[in-house]
Amino acid sequence: MDSITLVNGQPSALVEAFDRGLAYGDGLFETIALVQGQVQLWQAHRQRFIAGLLSLNIVTDTACAEALINTLTLELKTAYVLFDRPDGVIKITVTRGTGGRGYAAPRSAVPTRIVAIMPWPSGRELLSSTGVRVRLCRHRWSHNVALAGIKHLNRLDQVLARSECFDETIHEGIMLDQNGGVVSGAMSNLFIEVDGILITPKLDQCGIKGTMAEHIIAMAQKNGIRVLHQRVSLNDLMKADAVFMTNSINGIWPVVELFDDVSSQWPISNLTLSLQTTLANDLSHQTLVPKIC
Known about the structure:
Oligomer: single chain
Number of helices: 8
Radius of gyration: 19 Å
CATH architecture of the largest domain: Alpha-Beta Barrel
Strand content: 25-35%
Mean pLDDT: 93
CATH class of the largest domain: Alpha Beta
Helix content: 25-40%
CATH superfamily of the largest domain: D-amino Acid Aminotransferase, subunit A, domain 2
């Protein structure tokens, strides 16, 4: 079977027409790597999901959030058995549920749970070693301090930005904020290397706080590499010694070329290669919960 989807614990690919996730983007999601029957960075995804549930007031307290996540964990194990393959891409979605014609959320709404496992994407394996080409997206991040960092369902900024990368030789897009500062990729977090220091853009006005990015920051700091969160200009990007992008499925992608009206090239640095090696070692030895094989 190509993919498996459970809706509220039952095999299905259908949701109610008036589900608030469909109507208003009123919900959250996580995209997670399934490798050899184990869920990578599960604790980080779990904690981000709980924080998002509380921030959007989909649940009333931490105990309710924990209970919801525990239910999703059981459903993920069921989906894995049906999927019957060790590797894939997990997507977990929770919406506020159905009810209410307008924006006001009904107090009686029951969250909708969607657990899906899809085949691992092909053709990306070499990009971690050869590097990727990117372009500068014309569409920019919208500023919203209240939603900055949260992986909510309204991802139109990224949809529009990603649609600009129509050339198959362009693997990602660089997204700016409304002030012209560099924020991230369309589907990735961004790091630049300057004199052995890693710099990643602040995400206090827009963007997503990536689980892989957070893991790499902690990993780098543990190994004595200084990491700074600060504003990054286009000039900072162009003058960087090296650039890489991260997400939960791709790991670390070195950026080797910005192909645009203003172009630039970067080498794959020794620091990037070292981080890739350390990350691979971390992911192969970490205690992963839930282990579902």
